[in-house]
Amino acid sequence: MIGSKSISNIFCRVFGRITVSTYPENAYGELRHMIDLQFNGLFGLLILIADIYAIVKTVQSNAETLTKVLWIVVILFLPLLGVILWYFFGPRG
């Protein structure tokens, strides 16, 4: 069973960390946190979309079942590197 701490870590890796500052040191500190959140969140969302696309294309390919399963495992466990590897070496149409 996956604990709540594991789910939180997975969420943060995919969508970025949310930084909450009640009393920022100055306005620039607050702005920096907002930019970090937006950049990390957008980057995580793009990786998630690329992962889903790669998994769908892998399932739709004519490769053997074992090859499909191995590629899906690589994509899931190594989100960014897995998509890059899939793009260059993964099964096609």
Properties at a glance:
single chain, 93 residues, mainly alpha, elongated
Secondary-structure map with pairings?
Blueprint: H1 4-15, H2 27-60, H3 65-77, H4 79-89
Helix pairs in contact: 2-3, 2-4, 3-4
Short note summarizing the structure:
This protein has 93 residues and is mainly alpha-helical. 75% of the residues lie in helices and 0% in strands.
Your description of this structure?
The chain has 93 residues and is mostly helical. It has one domain. The protein contains four helices and no strands. It has helices at 4-15, 27-60, 65-77, 79-89. α2 (27-60) crosses α4 (79-89). It is elongated, with a radius of gyration of 17 Å. The chain starts with a helix and ends with a helix.
